[in-house]
Amino acid sequence: MPDIRPTAGSGALVLNATYEPLCVVSVRRAAILVLSAKAVCVADGEGILHSARSALPVPSVVRLTRFVRVPYRTHVGLSRRAIFARDGWRCAYCRGPAETIDHVFPRSRGGRHAWENVVAACARCNHTKGDKTPAELGWRLHALPAAPKGTAWRVLGHRAPDPRWADWLDLREPEAA
Ligand SMILES: [Zn+2]
Question: N or C: which terminus of the chain has fewer CB atoms within 10 Å of its end residue's CB?
Fold first, then answer.
C-alpha cells in the first residue's frame, strides 16, 4: 500500500451502486452528486458545505444510486510520485530516504523505463551506482520491483487514502515495495 498519511478533506471516495470503489473526486464534485441525487452519502467527512439553498455535511464516501459500468484501468501509470509511493519513499538499496529514481539496469545500457526496472533511491546510492548494475557492485535490491496491483492502487494511485475509506478499500494488501 502507498502511504497512510491522513489527508482529511482532500477528496471523496466514490463507490459504485454495488459498493465497489471507483475513484476519488473532489469534495465539491461529491457534494454535487449527492445534491443531484446521483449519489448518497455513506460516510461524512469533517465540516459542513454551504450552498445557496442548503447545507450538507462534507461527504467523505458517496455511493452512486445507479450502477455504472466502468472499464478497468489495469495499468498503473509510471510517475515519479507513484514510484516513490510504491517503494515507501525508501531507497531500494540502503533503505534510507529516497530522493531520486534509479533505473536498476541502467538506461545508458538499454534498461527500460518500466515498473520492473525503476526503483526509488537515495542520491548517494544513485550516484555511486552510476551506470553499473546492482550485481556488478555486489548490491542487493530490497525487493524485486514490480507494477503495483490491487483495488487501492487502481482507485488511489499515489494518493494517500483517507482513513475513513479503509472500510471500502482493502488497505491491507501486501506492500509492493
Ligand atoms: Zn541509498
Answer: C
